[in-house]
Each structure stands twice: as C-alpha cells, then as structure tokens.
Write a structure and sequence with these properties.
Length: 81
C-alpha cells in the first residue's frame, strides 16, 4: 500500500511540475505578444501559440488524472485530504 501511495504521490507531483512549466511557457509567449515587434509573422505566431496551448492542455489533463487517482487512493484507504 505504501508503494502505491508513493507512486501516486510522485506522479501527481511530476504532473503538477509539468503543467506549471507548460503554463509558464504559454504565459511568457502571450506576454511577448504584447511587446512591439515589427517582424511578427501572424500565421507562424498563431501556430506556435496553438501548439503551446495544446501542450499546456495535455499537461492539464495529465495533472487532473493524477489528482483523481491520488484522491481515490486516499479515499480508499480512509484518509481525508
């Protein structure tokens, strides 16, 4: 049981870190769009933004699944978080 707990806790921690990194990349990219830039290629910028948002969304889904698995485990063993 302890091995399962540690595995789920590690998965959740890693998913949270991964999501935060992806979120930060998107935020930095979006903040950069507000800076004046005369060489902006709109199509390339949109494609890059869509790719970054998709990666962030994927990390979000992974994080939520890890949270769910961790929460279910805690409920299963009778611990409240």
């Amino acid at each position: 049981m302890m091995d399962e707990y540690l595995k789920l806790h590690k998965a959740l921690s890693e998913a949270e870190v991964e999501y935060q990194k992806k979120f930060d990349v998107v935020k930095t990219f979006e903040d950069g769009l507000l800076m004046p830039n005369q060489n902006t290629n709109i199509i390339q910028t949109l494609e890059t933004w869509e790719k970054l948002k998709a990666e962030e969304h994927s990390a979000f889904i992974k994080r939520e699944a890890a949270r769910k698995n961790y929460g279910e485990f805690l409920r299963r063993i009778g611990t409240k978080k």
